[in-house]
Amino acid sequence: MTFDPAAFLPDDLLARIRERAPIHDRENTFPEQDLEELRDAGYLKILVPVARGGAGLGLEQAAVLQQRLATAAPATALAINMHLVWTGVAKVFSDRSVPGLEFVQDGAARGEVFAFGISEGGNDLVLFGSNTVAVPLDDGGYAFTGTKIFTSLAPVWTKLGLHGLDTTSPDAPKLVFAFIDRTDAVTTSDDWDTLGMRATQSRTTRLDGAAAAAEHVVRRIDPGPSPDPIVFGIFSVFELLLASVYTGVARRALDLAVETVQKRTSKKTGLTYSQDPDIRWRIAGMSLLYYALPPQITALARDVDERADHGARWFTLLSGVKHRAVVMAKQVVDEAILTAGGGSYFSTNELSRLYRDVLAGMFHPSDPESAHATAANALLGPLEG
User: Fold this and answer.
1) Residues paired with residue 115 on neighbouring β-strands, in sequence order
2) To which H or E segment does residue 114 belong?
3) pLDDT in tens, 134-190
4) 186-188 and 203-212 as β-strands: parallel, antiparallel, unpaired?
5) Alpha-carbon distance 36 to 40, whole Å?
6) Are 84 and 46 in contact (CB under 8 A)?
7) Which residues are within 8 A (CB) of 97 and not within 5 positions of it... i.e. 6 or more apart?
8) Which residues form the Acyl-CoA dehydrogenase C-terminal domain (predicted)?
9) End-to-end CA distance of the chain
10) CB within 8 Å of 41: residues ≥ 6 apart
């Protein structure tokens, strides 16, 4: 059966989301109505197997859908990304017969919202280390104390997937990956007032002994780089869906530039700017940048779905596609601003918002330094000494 993105994200739904996007950006509010409509459309469970109540899509299809959603509202797409990361990791587990995340699939099928609590201030190890303290409990659970930053979906999540460092168990140190509920041990700061991607409401989350039940402790692994499925699952799904969001931003910027130059008329020639050779060259350059990315995302997402074995190359491939997508998107938005003219400088212009939103891409792992270090290590080996 041919995959039809409009079956999961109909045009009328996208139109409503697009109409609300500037309001949430201006008012710095979370798009609650977007979430409700997406939940009603079954979007939160697109990666959940049919047998567990979902749509049974693969990462390849989810990447296409996230590109489509980002053309309407980048911040909504980025926020939903974090939920899809966990359902995507659950799919990676189930596809490889690794138990432990069935509760994520069942919860998503019921409409629960899963947020991503990995980022920490000053922790450039990201997945490979944590500043959050994980204390083992007598019942097999863990209590987490620390601060997580960039917690998208902050106002609405029902479960937070996170990690912390256990330094007290006999086999310590161990990185512990688990899920917690929203309780009095969790404080969400109202501190999200940013340049762009404002509707994600990725607020700071403080944990003071927040407990994860034993059945929600997913993995305990050694700190540092690891072949464990939790590391591969998070890294692959996170990087590919991030690349998808920013590729969708670029698509929208390109479409807006084309639309604008077909409407604007030159006083000098009497022709639309679409007939200006310089403008045509700029539009062509934008398209050459943009069209290289969707096939790359599709190919790598399909490889994850089909369990291709890229060995140690996986991390270079995944960090590379995310890095290229962000660089490409920023270049395309820059060119779109120049092409559309001075009107795009006004804050009410959609390109102005895209210009701010696209800047967030550089802060998401893998950042440019990490992506280049990963590629260099793969080709040249690690630094000596």
Assistant:
1) 160
2) strand 114-117
3) 999 999 999 999 999 999 999 999 999 999 999 999 999 999 999 999 999 999 999
4) antiparallel
5) 6
6) yes
7) none
8) 241-364
9) 55
10) 8, 9, 10, 13
